[in-house]
């Protein structure tokens, strides 16, 4: 299959605590566990948690190696943006906070105007955007 619109995208990140991440992304946002591997069968093997919506063309891959953990190093511009095409539900924000997230202000005023930014337990940022994605070509 050539590279194109039907290519699946995997966003891979290191994770401090896979259980805390699963609570946030699955319990809070509603992603499903699409694959899990506890790792540790061979030296250097990572524990792995993949989350997403089964019908989506992307998923989030979180990895942790207990023997040699990689510390996540997110910046305030490392964003995973989910376009809702409607106002961000307060109940969703509350649930994300209940499951380990923390609402933060964005340094980019666009995201403060059009969405809500939540840090996950590793400090990576999820933006819930009230706008719809418009696939308009750039001229």
Automatic annotation (TrEMBL):
InterPro entries: Glyas_Bleomycin-R_OHBP_Dase, VOC_core, YycE-like_C, YycE-like_N. Residues 5-131 form the VOC domain. It holds the Pfam family YycE-like_N. This is VOC family protein. It comes from Streptomyces pyxinae.
